Amino acid sequence: MTKNNNELVFLPLGGSNEIGMNLNCYGFGPEHDRQWILVDVGVTFGDLTTPGIEVIVPDPKFLEGENILGIILTHAHEDHIGALGWLWDKIKAPLYATPFTAFLIREKLREKGIEDFHLTEVPLGGKVNLGPFEVDYITITHSIPEPNGLAIKTPLGTVLHTGDWKIDPDPITGAATDISAITALGDEGVLAMVCDSTNVFVDGHAGSEADVKVALTQVIAGLKGRVAVACFASNVARMDSVIRAAEANGRSVCLVGRSMHRMSAAAKSVGLMAGIQEFVSEGEAAKMKDKDVLYLCTGSQGEPRAALSRIADGNHPLVKLGAGDSCVFSSRVIPGNEIGIRSLQNRLSDLGVEIHTEKDHPGIHVSGHPCRDELKEMYAWARPKIAVPTHGERRHLQKHAALAAEIGVPEQVTPRNGDMVRLAPGKPEIIDEVPAGRLYVDGGVIVPEASDALRERRHAAHNGMLFVSFALNPKNQLASYVDVRGLGLAFEDEDSISDQLEKLCDIVEKAVQKLSREERDDDLTVETTVARVLKKAAQNVWGRRPIVETIILRL
């Protein structure tokens, strides 16, 4: 590499123009011979627009065949490490993480049957050297143990990649933000800061987890009967707060949900959750007095298969809630989950369970991301020449860029996923656009975003389906009655079902008989004809064009 051709570029393949699914790439070298490091490889989750899809991962197509020196993980949230197992074959490279994150990565990869990986545990405040990149880990605070900012030092300048963060002066887990390290970076000179934008619309500060513990202790003190608390299992600080609040009120804690057990094991492996009592099993809790137990549950976002939904549906084998019991939601509502959460809370209410949320008890939840005043403090410490907002939707990134300009940051760039930003040399600008999209995990298989299966599923969900079957003899004549059945189509009553389907059968029979013998010899021609006439008929009856599946039996 000749020095004059070297460039330092930033390339988000996930996490820009969206919250979640983080995959950030830093490249150094000339255009034809760049070396890369990746920062985080996360997932996002499906919603009502992706029926049957629970997990979505970034498309790493651009990275295949590139020189990837290493993958650095900032912390252990799913939107930062969750795609490693799904994408491993496409982006294999040495992994670097602090001990808590490393514990969960090992478990995640081995669950996928992946054993051939090299994972280096980096101590808190440690350093990694990868080719032209020298990466220093900087302690920050967030809602999970061992969150790290990264000082990525290169011959063309230093980038501060914040990861997810907030300023918590009294964190429950780990040390407070290392302000001196960030300030020292600013003194040395920070070329660019790639920074979390989640709460850029919120004034003030996010608040301290220590205050949440106090608020939860007070709320739980006023509750009678059995108490369930729902929060994110990945928020280990919140788990710790709930557990200690329960113990302060004489309640033993029962973990409900696989993720709760996994996260508590990871926390204990690095010395967290010290001094708490042993958890009681679900069987033991079922035999205890109501006032003596607290269930710490997964499912705060209304996830249908999570522990709290099973309890609300009465399907949990050991955990039951009813009249006189309470459920505390110590979490925020993630946009898109409103319907699921409301449904869950209504089902619990039907059981007689009293619901408690942040609206009723301000202080039982705080965000793990920086509000506007915290962003201003971070910029004051780091003093970057370039602001690169990330971890946000378009409106977040633009608002963040405006804030950076307002407080005097000379340059701002707001890339979308796939935009390659040249940070140095010269003026920062988007110099290329590379393939960037999403891959869906569909039944354990990775499929493209525009897969036929999902397209058909969406179509069927909105328009229903019609199934047609009949037999043709060796002369290509109808040798049976036509049978038409519907799925997902509305009828007034049973009589109208029979009448309408009989009319559709007649339409199909006439359409098939109009075909020539030679045309009936070709299944595709017959199927196309049947689909055309049925969709037209369905449009007239229901105002919909259903999927038509035709089964031809040839005698």
Automatic annotation (TrEMBL):
Boundaries of every Metallo-beta-lactamase domain copy: 22-205
Pfam families cross-referenced by the UniProt entry: Lactamase_B, RMMBL, RNase_J_b_CASP, RNase_J_C
Keywords: Exonuclease, Hydrolase, Metal-binding, Nuclease, RNA-binding, Zinc
Keyword Nuclease: yes
Metal-binding found in the keyword field: yes
Protein known as: Ribonuclease J
Lineage: Bacteria, Pseudomonadati, Pseudomonadota, Alphaproteobacteria, Caulobacterales
